[in-house]
Structure formats: structure tokens, C-alpha cells
Design goal:
Elements lengths: L1 H17 L6 H39 L1 E3 L7 E10 L2 E10 L18 E4 L1 H7 L4 H4 L2 E5 L12 E5 L12 E6 L16 H23 L3 H13 L4 H32 L2 E3 L4 E3 L1 H6 L1 H21 L21 H16 L5 H41 L2 H12 L1 H25 L3 H14 L3 E5 L5 H10 L5 E8 L8 E6 L1 H6 L16 H10 L2 E5 L11 E6 L6 H8 L8 E4 L2 H4 L2 H39 L2 H5 L3 H37 L6 H32 L6
Length: 719
């Protein structure tokens, strides 16, 4: 036992010494440091995500209303909605029936009639839109205990008048804490698997790719050392201990570095740009035990990758390392085929599992597509070497043999390019997945801004609408919209009613029930796009029926007056009013905020990929400048460097770019067909391919330059 411990200690010291003396040791040290930090960062982000979901659900349950029948009710409760900018706002209207009416968490007591409690974020973002007086008199803020997240926009409004008894939208509440709260940010919450899957697909895969690249920096010397240990009788355990000793310090320090941002978010609320979401530090703090264990697991994963990427033959018949630098293992090609198969079969699985299967297949395909490229370029290298030998072209012969002998280098160089193009393409496709209505809402907003405003109200008398009209901005037009659906075979239509003066303002002729809209303003054309068949009619005074088929329309003379219309609407005695610009509910939908999250994950993943590409290229420059330097002596000129480096560096990367571009185009089109929404931006894909092609040429040029400079200082050595 003591002998085993003593041997392990010696092997650890050998590994530590090797980390300070091998070629490219500083590059590998920092590469492993960054890789461990990246993997731990994604792991801890997943822990924070799960903890945040748990905290959100706990706080939402604590404020959920307990619905009861009217005889046991102590409070009337009704939910509504609004928006500040394009972000949704939840409004809870209440009317206490007894002095001891219950209050939810975050509220110490109900305000007086006509007063309102606002969340801090709603107060901060809505000041410019008159949020302090929109729903009533401001009476204070909701504490963080009553908010799902600190970034939640929610208001509790105590109505000034007693609600009508026959209004079914008012719920009778006896207490809070039912566990069924779906207000605020809980209204459209996605399952925790959605952000976790997206973060690992767009950020976790690049972090793992960076780990593989960093682990193989200086691999030639390390493979020779492993073969020597085997020849001396060492087992896989001895080689594992040496490799761990070499990588343990930078990997451990990188993991500790990733704990720093987690520690910051656990002691203070953190806003995640560009999403605007505020991470609650209480949830992150509560998950510290899980975070510590997860960080240890991520460190073990990094060390496992280091050990797993340095393997040799186990039969003992050869000292040649069976690493990925000498051949392309068949299992890698098989796994890539499995990824493609998962993508193809995702359309046949149940709909709820389609996206998960597609994402898993995508990750596997991206991770191993570079191996397919390496196989192609390896065969190309063999052909180039034979061609160069027949024609006496030294650069082609040497470059072809180098390409044939080192496919692992191609994999590491192409890996960053493959995943980078894939991430950019997925960011664009996911960003385009807003759906037809959201795209139409964006287009409408670009054309007419917020000059057409929908006011959802019911059971308004002529005197109430006259009062509402008097509170509108000067020059506004007030109309009613009535939806008619006679059923097949007739198509539904919408009737727009208003005074003759208002209709003429919209360039609509006053001709009874079937007025024409020839030469109408652009606002009328936008109404046609949203409502379909429009019919205009003239009425002396505006009223709204209580059956829910009617709503109000306000056309303002200039944009930017939505807040003023909301101010006028929420002062009406009917608290069921809801105000939004034409198509505004699609502008503020959760799908419209999806691009912000995709941008957050994707940009982080691209950052990791850029680091991986830089480390891989720098490592290859270190090796190629030493290996090619003697060629200047053998050939008598330095032009050979440009020819040699173009084949093992530039040409394989160009092939990888073309293959990746074709696969990404197919993958994006298939994804759009699967989800039935979105579009492919061929401009962005072409730009990405062009950028990678430029990088391929640059890598070859820099490699030749590095080798030429090394040749000027090269001296023979007994190595």
C-alpha cells in the first residue's frame, strides 16, 4: 500500500514537472484553465437555473389565491394585463369584503380604494409612461417576498367602486397560498428543461470543445511519454496519474475561477443582459451545496477528458500511441451518423419530445462532424502526397503526408469552425421563430407605431364613452369594433363604427352602414391586415355591449400617445379595461423575448469557440514552426513554407467550411420544417462561411510565417 502511494506521488510529480517543460506548456496551462472555467461556468449556470425555477415556484405558490364560494369569501380578486414598452405587466384588481381580508406575501396591508401597489421594477421602468398614476394613486411597493423575481412587473390595484355581482371574472378568495399562482412571470413560464437544453446546446458544447482542444495541446510529446511509460511496464492507471498531475492545477484553478461569478450572484441580485431578467440572489445562495458538488463534478469531467484524449494500444504489442493524431476512429464517424439519424427521426417522435430529440441530435452531429472532415482530408492528403512525389513538388508532397499523418490536428482546427457556424445559424433561425403574428406586429409597429390603440372594455354606456373621449389626447378618433361570425358558408367580418366626423378623419365616407374606405389612411389599411373584411358604419354616440363582442379603437394623430390613452382608460370605473397598440400583445409575448435569451447563450458559446479556435491555431503554430524549420536547409529557399502549410492547414479548413455550410443549410431548413415557423437568412450563412474561409487563409499564412521565422533561428539538435 505504501509502495503504491509512493509510486503515485512520484507519478504526480512527473506530471507536474511535465506541465512546466513540454512544448507549448504555457499555452496548454492557460487553455486548460479557460476550459475548466468554461465547463464549470455552464454547470453552475444550470444549477442556478434549476434553483431559480424552484424559488419562483415557491414564491408563486405562496401568493396564489385560494378560490372559494361567495359565502366564505373575504376578497374579490381578478387578474388583468397591461404593458410597459413591449414588456407585459400583470395587474391584480382586488376589492376586500371584510376588514380582515387576506393579503398575499409581499403585501402588509391592502391600500385604500383607488390606490395601487407596484413592484420595484414596474416602478422603475414605467415612470416615463405615467405608471405612478395610471391605475390609481401610488401607495407603495411590493416587497421581494411577494415577487417571483426582482424583475417582475406586477401591480395590485384596489378598485374604487364595488364590482358588479354578476361579473363572472371576479373570483371569490378566502386566503392566499393555494399553490396555483399563475400571475406575473409565471403566466407563460416554460419548463426548466428549455433553458437548460438551450444553454448546453449553445454554450456547453463549445465549452467541451474548448476542453478537448486544450487537452491536446502539445499532444505529440505527451503521447511519446505515454508510450515510454507503457514500454517501462506502466499501466493505464500510471499514465492516468501522470496526465492528471499535469492538468490538475490549471483545471482546479479554472474551476475555482468559475465559482467567483456564482458567488457574486449569490450575494446580490444580478441583471442578465440583454434579457433584462434579474437573478434573485436568494435562490442562488440556497443552492450553494449543489453548486459546490457540481463544480467538483465539472472538474472531474475535465480531467476525464484529459485522460480520455491520451490513450495508447492496450495489447502491449506496440508503443505507437493509438491517439486521434494517427487515424480517425470509426466510432466517431458512427456517432456522427447517430446524431444525423436523431435529427432526421425527430419529426416522427411525439410532438412534446421533438425539440429535445432534435437538439440532442444537433449537439452530437456538431461535436463529431469535424471527424468526417478529417477523414475526407486524410484521404486527400494521401492523394496529394502521391501527386507531389510524381511531379517533384516538394511542398505538395510534404503537406500531403503531414495532412495524412495528423488528422487529429484537422479535427481540432475544424471543430471551432463547425460549431461556430452552427451556433450562428441556430441563433438566426431561433431569432426568426417569432411566428407570423409577431412578425406582422413588428411590421405594423414600424409602419404606424402606436397610432391605432385597442381598448378592450365591456358594458360601457354613452356617458362613460363620452367621458373617456374627453380624456383622450387632442385630435384622437374614437371608434367601436364589433366582430361578426355568421358561420359557414359566410365568412366573418368586422364592423367599425363611429361618428361621421371621426370616419371622415380616417378618409372613410359617411354612407350609412356600407361606407367605403377608398383613399383611406394607412391606419385603416393596417386594420384590414389584422381584422380582415372591414365594414364601416356611422353611429351618433359610442356605446359598448356587455356581451364581449365589442371593443374600442382609438386612433391618435401622432405616435407616442399610448401612455396617455392608458391613463384615460384606467380612470374609467370599469377595471376590466385592457389597452394595447394594434398587435401589441404579440410584440410583448414571451416568444418576442426569446431572441434575447438565444443571444445570451449564443454569444457566450461563440466566445468559448473563439478561444478554442485561438488555442488550437496557436498550438499548431508552435508545432509546425519547429517541425518545418529544417526545410529551409533542405530546399535552400523559404517559399516551401507557404506551399507546405497551405495543404495541412488552409485546404482542410476550407473543406470543413464547405461541408459545414452545406450541413448547416440542410439542418436549418429541416428545423424550420419541423417547427413550422422561422426562416433561414442566407445572407448571414453566406457571411459566416466567407468569414471562416478568410480565417482558413489567414491560419495558413500565419503558419507559414511562423515556420519561416523559426527557420532563421533553427539549429540542429539531438532530439
Amino acid at each position: 500500500m505504501k509502495e503504491s502511494i509512493r509510486t503515485a506521488g512520484k507519478l504526480i510529480r512527473i506530471g507536474l514537472a511535465a506541465g512546466r517543460s513540454t512544448p507549448g506548456d504555457r499555452l496548454r496551462w492557460w487553455g486548460l484553465f479557460g476550459a475548466a472555467a468554461a465547463v464549470a461556468f455552464v454547470t453552475l449556470a444550470t444549477v442556478a437555473t434549476v434553483a431559480t425555477y424552484h424559488g419562483r415556484e415557491t414564491r408563486a405558490d405562496a401568493r396564489g389565491p385560494v378560490i372559494t364560494d361567495s359565502k366564505d369569501a373575504a376578497l374579490l380578486y381578478r387578474e388583468g394585463g397591461d404593458s410597459v414598452g413591449t414588456r407585459p405587466v400583470s395587474i391584480v384588481f382586488v376589492h376586500p369584503l371584510t376588514p380582515e381580508a387576506p393579503v398575499p406575501t409581499g403585501v402588509t396591508r391592502w391600500p385604500e380604494p383607488g390606490q395601487v401597489l407596484l413592484s420595484p421594477e414596474l416602478l422603475r421602468t414605467g415612470r416615463g409612461e405615467g405608471i405612478l398614476t395610471r391605475y390609481g394613486t401610488f401607495a407603495g411597493t411590493i416587497t421581494t417576498d411577494g415577487l417571483v423575481t426582482p424583475s417582475e412587473r406586477i401591480a395590485y390595484v384596489r378598485v374604487a367602486d364595488t364590482p358588479p355581482k354578476d361579473d363572472p371574472r371576479w373570483m371569490h378568495v378566502s386566503a392566499f397560498g393555494s399553490g396555483g399562482g399563475a400571475t406575473g412571470e409565471m403566466a407563460d413560464q416554460r419548463p426548466v428543461s428549455s433553458p437548460a437544453l438551450a444553454s448546453w446546446a449553445l454554450t456547453g458544447l463549445p465549452a467541451l470543445a474548448l476542453t478537448v482542444v486544450a487537452a491536446r495541446v502539445g499532444s505529440r510529446t505527451r503521447d511519446r511519454r505515454s508510450s515510454l511509460l507503457q514500454a517501462l511496464g506502466g499501466t493505464w492507471r500510471h499514465r492516468m496519474i501522470v496526465n492528471i498531475g499535469e492538468a490538475a492545477i490549471p483545471a482546479a484553478l479554472g474551476t475555482l475561477a468559475a465559482l467567483l461569478p456564482y458567488a457574486v450572484t449569490s450575494v446580490r441580485d444580478t441583471r442578465l443582459s440583454p434579457t433584462g431578467y434579474i437573478l434573485d440572489h436568494r435562490d442562488v445562495w440556497a443552492a450553494w451545496p449543489t453548486a459546490a458538488a457540481s463544480a467538483a463534478v465539472s472538474l472531474l469531467a475535465v480531467l476525464s477528458i484529459v485522460v480520455g484524449t491520451h490513450r495508447i494500444h492496450r495489447d502491449g504489442t506496440s508503443t505507437r500511441p493509438a491517439s486521434f493524431t494517427s487515424r480517425v476512429p470509426a466510432w466517431r464517424l458512427f456517432v456522427c451518423g447517430v446524431g444525423v439519424a436523431l435529427v432526421l427521426t425527430s419529426q416522427y417522435v411525439p410532438q412534446r419530445a421533438q425539440l429535445a430529440v432534435f437538439t440532442c441530435g444537433t449537439v452530437v452531429m456538431w461535436a463529431f462532424l469535424s471527424s468526417v472532415v478529417a477523414l475526407l482530408t486524410r484521404h486527400l492528403g494521401s492523394w496529394l502526397a502521391d501527386s507531389g512525389k510524381r511531379r517533384g513538388h516538394a511542398g505538395r508532397m510534404i503537406g500531403g503526408r503531414w495532412t495524412h499523418a495528423h488528422p487529429g490536428v484537422i479535427v481540432r482546427l475544424a471543430l471551432a469552425m463547425v460549431i461556430g457556424i452552427g451556433i450562428v445559424a441556430q441563433m438566426q433561425v431561433w431569432t426568426s421563430r417569432l411566428g407570423g403574428h409577431s412578425h406582422a406586429a413588428v411590421a405594423t409597429h414600424q409602419r404606424i407605431k402606436d397610432t391605432v390603440i385597442e381598448v378592450a372594455a365591456s358594458n360601457m354606456t354613452a356617458s362613460q364613452t363620452d367621458r373617456f373621449r374627453s380624456s383622450l389626447p387632442a385630435g384622437s378618433v374614437l371608434l367601436t369594433r364589433t366582430f361578426h361570425d355568421p358561420g359557414p358558408p359566410r365568412d366573418p367580418w368586422v364592423t367599425i363604427a363611429g361618428s361621421c366626423r371621426d370616419l371622415r378623419t380616417l378618409h372613410v365616407a359617411c354612407r350609412g352602414d356600407k361606407g367605403s374606405a377608398a383613399g383611406s389612411r394607412v391606419q385603416v389599411e393596417e386594420m384590414r391586415r389584422w381584422y380582415g373584411d372591414l365594414r364601416f358604419t356611422q353611429v351618433p354616440r359610442i356605446t359598448v355591449k356587455p356581451d364581449g363582442t365589442q371593443s374600442l379603437l382609438v386612433v391618435t394623430p401622432a405616435p407616442g400617445q399610448l401612455a396617455a390613452v392608458k391613463q384615460a382608460a384606467y380612470t374609467l370605473p370599469n377595471p376590466s379595461v385592457q389597452v394595447q397598440a394594434l398587435g401589441g400583445n404579440w410584440l410583448g409575448s414571451s416568444g418576442s423575448r426569446l431572441p434575447n435569451w438565444i443571444q445570451l447563450f449564443g454569444v457566450t458559446g461563440i466566445l468559448f469557440i473563439l478561444v478554442a479556435g485561438a488555442v488550437s491555431a496557436a498550438a499548431e503554430f508552435v508545432r509546425i514552426r519547429h517541425a518545418l524549420a529544417p526545410l529551409s536547409v533542405l530546399t535552400g529557399h523559404r517559399r516551401v513554407f507557404r506551399s507546405v502549410t497551405s495543404w495541412p492547414l488552409t485546404v482542410p479548413l476550407l473543406i470543413a467550411t464547405l461541408v459545414t455550410g452545406a450541413v448547416t443549410a440542410w439542418h436549418s431548413v429541416f428545423f424550420i420544417a419541423l417547427v413550422q415557423e422561422g426562416s433561414v437568412s442566407w445572407t448571414i450563412l453566406t457571411a459566416g462561411i466567407a468569414a471562416c474561409a478568410a480565417v482558413s487563409l489567414t491560419v495558413g499564412f500565419l503558419g507559414a510565417r511562423a515556420a519561416a521565422r523559426e527557420a532563421d533561428q533553427w539549429r540542429p539538435a539531438a532530439d
